[in-house]
Description:
By secondary structure, the chain is an alpha/beta fold. It contains 5 helices and 5 strands, in the order βαβαβαβαβα.
Amino acid sequence: MKTVLLVVGRTVDKRLDALIADYVGRVKHYLPFEMVVVPELKNTKALTEAQQKEKEGELLLRCLQPGDEVVLLDEGGRELRSVEWAAWLAQKQAGGARRLVFVVGGPYGFAPAVYVAAREKLSLSRMTFSHQMIRLLFVEQLYRACTILRGEPYHHE
Length: 157
C-alpha cells in the first residue's frame, strides 16, 4: 500500500522544508510514500473563508483516486499515542486499500465535500499548529510508527 500526504501549498520556510524532506527520506526506507502538493490559491483576498475552503477542496478531491482510504488530519479528529498510531497504521496497511491518503487542509480547514470523502479524522494534538508545521509533525510520527512496527530503538517507552 502506498501512503500519501496530500497538502495545500508548498512549504515556504526553508528550514521546515529541509526537516520535512529529511523525514520523508527516512519514511521511504520503510514504505512507499509521497507528499503531493496542491498549488495554493492565488488572489484569496477576494474570497471568503468558505469560498477558499471550497476551492481548495475541489483541488484536493481531484487528487483522490477510487478506492483511496482517506484520512483527514483535523483538530477534531481522534488522538492516538504513538504506539497506538503505529498499531492503527499496521491495521490500515493490512486492510487492502491501494493508497492510504492523509490530507492536510489549508489555513481555514476543509470544505464539507472533503469531510464527506474521508473515512476518518485523526488529530496530532488538541493544540492548533500551522498547516505547514503539521507536515513536519506528521512525517516524524509516520517515521516513528515505522520504527515502532520494526522494533527499532527510535521510540523509547
